[in-house]
Amino acid sequence: DGIICFDSKPGQGTTFSLFLPAVDAPAASETPNIEQWVAGHETVLVVDDEPYILDACTAMLTGMGYRVLTAGSGADAVALYSKREQPIDLVILDMVMPEMDGRETFRQLKKLDPDVKVILSSGYSLEDMAEEMLSMGCESFVQKPFDEHQISRKIRELLGE
Predict the structure, then answer these.
(1) What is the pLDDT of residues 118-149, one digit of tens each?
(2) Contact call for residues 70 and 46 (beta carbons, < 8 A)
(3) Measured CA distances, 87 to 39, 65, 75, 116, 144 (Å)
């Protein structure tokens, strides 16, 4: 129900022509749903064993106004959290890490602070583990890769607008 033609000449470029059938119906007017992320000011600890994920999350969250701390392992996260000099408002915790996985890291963080707020994060489908951790008091889950809209929504749900 349409034709695409092109004309290409070396050194001069290519021209594409699209011929589509006319329609007698009015164009549908749709207002695009542009989701905005909400800026924050809180301190977020990002825990992930992949340096490029730590870098990407740091850039994303810093650009959104958050103060970002990072830990490359569960053990590092527990040590950083225990020595914190100011409040850590939220932890974004990778579930799959070597040595101390997300589950054990979460348990240790809960011992340090029963009110710790944690968003689980994983690039894998780990429904059973995620459900277990949510039942242990973890607040939320976000699937990797996530963007600023998704993480903003999750953070604001936990910390308030």
Answers:
(1) 998 887 665 666 676 677 777 788 888 888 88
(2) yes
(3) 19, 16, 19, 10, 26
